[in-house]
Design a protein that fits this description.
This protein is mostly helical. The chain has helices at 4-17, 37-46, 59-71, 83-94, 96-107, 121-128, 133-149, 154-176, 206-231, 236-277; strands at 20-21, 31-32, 35-36. It has 10 helices and 3 strands.
Length: 281
């Protein structure tokens, strides 16, 4: 570990992660101190070691995994105090790419590169050009919460995630303003992994197309009946009931068409917000 702040940041992340968990709704699966079984298996294979339960992970292995796969991935040593910790905690919870996307979005016009989840020189330079790091950290945490609210697992883990992000915000902003950061706490459900793959599904536009099509078709039928009514005008009784059908068809068709167009607008708007929240282009 290259910096003393990494050690302090790690102690707080580990407090948020707690011990061994295997919640049936946690997409991370079996996880111990923030390290999933999948990550642990890959780490041990990379070392030429046999796989074993993540429950047996050693403190040295934990430190090594956090250092290489999370702290280095967000280039913690190149970031200002507070921002490094916020990105680090987000990387452990949702993956480095997602955490970097929150940062890139939070940078706004200061960042001239692509929102791609890669911590390149352009992203690092943009961060170091920011004067108000306290506000930047707030925007990163806002991005993170918006992302989490669009996950299918939010109803289960949302309360714990909210508490964790609130504490991450407080600790990060304290570091950014040279104040003493508080200790971190464990919150039930806060250690569950929050992955983009678990985003809620975007609404389908097919119902809108059906409704709009039905509305248009109804209008066509109403027009045909109108022609028939004109032909039957001498027969007042037939003309009268056809007229009533025309009025009903016209109203229903208009409602279907307007409803279909309205739902399509809603579906497209929600899909766009979902894509923005979970970091998709």
């Amino acid at each position: 570990m290259a910096s003393s702040r990494e050690k302090e940041a790690l102690s707080r992340v580990l407090a948020h992660e707690g011990g061994y968990v295997n919640h049936p709704k946690d997409p991370g699966g079996p996880t111990n101190k923030g390290v999933t079984q999948r990550v642990y298996d890959a780490y041990r294979r990379g070392k030429g070691l046999g796989t074993r339960s993540v429950q047996q992970i050693s403190n040295q292995e934990i430190a090594d995994i956090y250092d290489r796969q999370y702290w280095d991935a967000v280039k913690g040593d190149d970031l200002p105090a507070g921002v490094d910790y916020v990105l680090f905690d987000g990387a452990v919870n949702s993956g480095p790419k997602q955490s970097i996307i929150w940062l890139q979005r939070a940078l706004g016009p200061v960042y001239k590169g692509r929102v791609d989840g890669t911590m390149g020189l352009t992203t690092v330079a943009a961060v170091n050009a920011v004067n108000d790091l306290d506000a930047l950290i707030g925007r990163i945490c806002d991005q993170r919460l918006a992302f989490m609210r669009h996950l299918r697992t939010w109803p289960t883990f949302g309360r714990g995630w909210s508490a964790r992000v609130a504490e991450v915000r407080s600790i990060g902003q304290a570091w950014a303003t040279n104040d003493a950061p508080q200790v971190a706490n464990f919150y039930d459900g806060a250690s569950a992994k929050a992955f983009a793959e678990d985003a809620e599904a975007a609404p389908m536009t097919a119902p809108a197309d059906v409704a709009t099509g039905a509305g248009v078709s109804g209008g066509v039928v109403a027009g045909t009946l109108q022609s028939l009514q004109d032909q039957l005008l001498p027969f007042s009784y037939a003309s009268e009931w056809i007229g009533k059908i025309i009025v009903i068809l016209t109203i229903v068709s208009a409602l279907l068409a307007i409803g279909g167009l309205g739902y399509r607008w809603y579906a497209n708007r929600k899909a766009k917000r979902l894509a923005e929240a979970v970091g998709m282009p």
